[in-house]
Amino acid sequence: MAKWLVKTEPSECSIDDFENAKDQTIPWDGVRNYQARNFLREMAEGDDVFVYHSSCKHIGVAGIVRVVTSAYPDPTQFREDSPYYDPKSTPQKPRWQAVDMAFEKKLPRLIPLDEIKSLPGLDGLALIRRGNRLSVMPVTEEQWRIILANA
User: Fold this and answer.
1) Of 89, 48, 65, nearest to 14 (Cα)?
2) DSSP three-state, residue 104
3) What digits encode the pLDDT tens for the residues 110-120?
4) What is the dihedral of CA 58, 59, 65, 69, to 10 degrees?
5) Using one digit for the tens of pLDDT, what is the confidence trace for 127-140?
6) Which residues on neighbouring strands pair with residue 7, listed in sequence order?
7) Looking at beta carbons, which pairs linking 122-129 to residues 24 or more positions away fall under 8 Å?
């Protein structure tokens, strides 16, 4: 199983939202960056995902969710009333993908970005490389282990 990290603003979708929807899935949709979309396409059922809170007061890794439905065409791209509507996308040739995820666990504490940056062994983590602002990114098994060990 692969490991991932998704960035979200807690006002949009937080680890608490996942926890409050324990017996349900939440679609991860609205991704409109081609590289992040390509990572969504690689996600498979059973993959573990860190939920990273960004653009808020307390920034960092907050919990873990699991992919329960592999990539499928993001329905928001077809809805004209959606902020994620894409008039160039068609059902026959969709441009954007979504996955469904479900709550696994909240970490004992939020692991702040400054702490993540200081942890040995995370130099290659996409989250801390300059210029990487993707909302979906891969995490190696070793990076996953290091982050979890510091929760």
Assistant:
1) 65
2) strand
3) 999 999 999 99
4) 120
5) 998 876 789 999 99
6) 52
7) 122/146, 122/147, 126/5, 127/5, 127/7, 127/52
